[in-house]
Every structure is written in structure tokens, then in C-alpha cells.
């Protein structure tokens, strides 16, 4: 809205000023085009800074702040595309908080019209990866596998360009590892998760995969490794559900079968 108002008012002033000064509509039109370009660059930089701030919240595992921020974005953004991206990004945060049912409701509202599906293939892939993660947290393996199948099919399509194709292939590898862990197929899984961890760039990813490595270490009876992974999660997990799980595990308490929203994270013994 700010872009439209500023562009409209500034554009009128620019046209009027230049037309009065040069008495030429040609230069007035040039001034109008330049004004719109400058407005686009200015507001584009503002939007970029806001996005970096939101990504910073996710990277620092400040998930509650991240979700609240996207709530505000969703309420103020205009256009279906903006709403889709807001809901998808908010769903990522909700999954990390343990609010999986709420995340699935948001994802169910993300609609991509049939006529736009070729144009928005990247969006479809991202949507299915997020949906996969939500289904795995719910323990719904069948739906998770169906969502992953869409991503694998798209990753094999030559229409994708780098670096998105490589990123999607990496996400599919992580999903396969998650399925094997869920099914109790541990052969070679620790090495795969260490590779995944090395390729992780955000703290949320690192926290998540350290928690998975703790599960694997527990299976093999490596208590020292398990404790180190869990302590990393507690130290860096912020408001994620994984930090809550790690605290329970370190205390020897039972881990819930499914994610819990607003889990009572205990900071007294951090």
C-alpha cells in the first residue's frame, strides 16, 4: 500500500513539476518512469530487510516471534501470492513449535490454480516439502510419502534450474533419511545424518538434525553421543518443540508420541 500511495502522489508531482519546467510531456513521462523505478528500488530494499529479519528469527530458533511476525504479514499483505507465501512460511514455524494441526490448516488454504501450476512449480515443491514435514510429525507416513513423491518427480524434471534443483534433491534426501528413521532402518543412517548436518545452514536445521542424531545414538546405546546431541538442542533450540523433547530426554522422562503445541520449556536448568 505504501508503494502505491507514494508512487501515485510522487508520480503526479514529478509529472507536474517536469512538465511545468520543460513544457514537454516527453520529459514528464521520463520523470514518471524514473520515479516508479526509484520507488520500486526503495520499497524493494525495505521488503528485503524485513525478509532477512524474519529469516534471522528462524535461524536463531525464535520460533514464536517468527510465527507472530508472519501472522502480522498475513493480515497486511495484499494478493493471493503474498497470502500463500505467508501461510507456508508460518506453517514452517508452527511445525517447529509443535502446532502441527494448525500448520496443516494453513497449508490446506494454500491454493495454486491449475492454469498457474507450470509457472509456480517451485512453490508446489516447497509446499509439499512442508506438508511432508507436518505429516511426519503427526506420524502419518502414507500422506508424507505421497507428498515426497511429488517432490521427487519434480526434482527429476529438466525444467528446474540450479540452485533450486540441487536444493530440492537435498531436501528429498533428508526426507528419505527421516522416513528410514521413522521405520527403524538404522543401517548407515548415522553417516547420512552427519552429512545432512554438515549441509545445514540454519540453526533450526542443525537443532533438528542433532535431535535425530540423538535418537540414532540412543538406538545404538551410545549414551555419551546421545547426551552431547541433546545438550546441543537444549542450548540452541530456542522455542522449538525439539528443545522441549531434549529436556525430557535428558531427565529420563517419556517423549510424547506426537508434537505438542506451547510445550512448557524449562529454562531453570539451562
Summarize the structure.
This protein is mainly alpha-helical and 270 residues long.
How would you characterize this protein structure?
The protein is mainly α and 270 residues long. 74% of the residues lie in helices and 0% in strands. Helix 10 (203-219) runs antiparallel to helix 11. The protein is globular and about 50 Å long. Mean pLDDT is 78; it is low at 1-19 and 40-49.
Question: Descriptors for this entry?
Answer:
single chain, 270 residues, mainly alpha, globular, disordered N terminus
Question: Which helices and strands occur, and which strands form pairs?
Answer:
Layout: H1 2-22, H2 25-59, H3 63-76, H4 80-97, H5 100-108, H6 121-138, H7 141-155, H8 164-182, H9 189-198, H10 203-219, H11 223-236, H12 241-251
Give the low-confidence spans.
Answer: 1-19, 40-49
Average pLDDT, rounded to a whole number, is 78
Please give the number of β-strands: 0
> Any idea what the shape is?
globular
Tell me about the biggest sheet?
none
**SS field, number of helical segments:** 12
Portion in beta strands: under 5%
Instruction: Assign the structural class, choosing from mainly alpha, mainly beta, alpha/beta, alpha+beta, or little secondary structure.
Output: mainly alpha
Helix content: over 70%
**Gyration radius, in Å:** 23 Å
Task: Give the terminus-to-terminus CA distance.
Answer: 44 Å
Order of helices and strands: HHHHHHHHHHHH
Amino acid at each position: 500500500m505504501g508503494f502505491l500511495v507514494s508512487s501515485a502522489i510522487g508520480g503526479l508531482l514529478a509529472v507536474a513539476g517536469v512538465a511545468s519546467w520543460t513544457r514537454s510531456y516527453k520529459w514528464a513521462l521520463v520523470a514518471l518512469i524514473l520515479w516508479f523505478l526509484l520507488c520500486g528500488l526503495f520499497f524493494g530494499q525495505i521488503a528485503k530487510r524485513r525478509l532477512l529479519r524474519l529469516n534471522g528469527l528462524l535461524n536463531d530458533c525464535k520460533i514464536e516471534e517468527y510465527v507472530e511476525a508472519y501472522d502480522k504479514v498475513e493480515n497486511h499483505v495484499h494478493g493471493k501470492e503474498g497470502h500463500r507465501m505467508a501461510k507456508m512460511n508460518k506453517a514452517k514455524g508452527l511445525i517447529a513449535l509443535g502446532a502441527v494441526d494448525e500448520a496443516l490448516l494453513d497449508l490446506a488454504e494454500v491454493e495454486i490454480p491449475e492454469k498457474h501450476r507450470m509457472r509456480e512449480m517451485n512453490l508446489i515443491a516447497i509446499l509439499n516439502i512442508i506438508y511432508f514435514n507436518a505429516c511426519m510429525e503427526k506420524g502419518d507416513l502414507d500422506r508424507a510419502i505421497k507428498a515426497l513423491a511429488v517432490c521427487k518427480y519434480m526434482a527429476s524434471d529438466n525444467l528446474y534450474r540450479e540452485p533450486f534443483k540441487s536444493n530440492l534433491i537435498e531436501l528429498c534426501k533428508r526426507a528419505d533419511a527421516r522416513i528410514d528413521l521413522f521405520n527403524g532402518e538404522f543401517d548407515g543412517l548415522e553417516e547420512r545424518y552427519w552429512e545432512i548436518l554438515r549441509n545445514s545452514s540454519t540453526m533450526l536445521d542443525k537443532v533438528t538434525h542433532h535431535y535425530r542424531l540423538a535418537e540414532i545414538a540412543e538406538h545404538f546405546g551410545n549414551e555419551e553421543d546421545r547426551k552431547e546431541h541433546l545438550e546441543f538442542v537444549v542450548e540452541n533450540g530456542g522455542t522449538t518443540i525439539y528443545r522441549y523433547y531434549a529436556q525430557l530426554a535428558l531427565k529420563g522422562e517419556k517423549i510424547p508420541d506426537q508434537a505438542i503445541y506451547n510445550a512448557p520449556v524449562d529454562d531453570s536448568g539451562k
